[in-house]
Amino acid sequence: MKWMLVLVLAGCGSTPPAPVRVEVPVMVPCVGEVPPRPAYEFDKLPSTATDGEIVLALARDWPRGRKYEGELEAVIAGCTHSAADVVH
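Predicted structure:
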């Protein structure tokens, strides 16, 4: 009977293990907001548009398209970082 008391008391003398922080990777979407697609003039042209009207519409759409392309590339760049680039 005494040996059981010794075993019980021996268990009380040890300290509990210290908490350990474990970092677990969690999947999160890399895209916060998708830029809206611009309204291109070319898409609104009637089927009877002349070659000159088509060329002018395309010329006016060019800057809109380049801006949209840049915004999409910025969104994609946020998704393509490697694990080494992540700051803890």
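Summary: The helical segments are 2-13, 41-44, 51-77.
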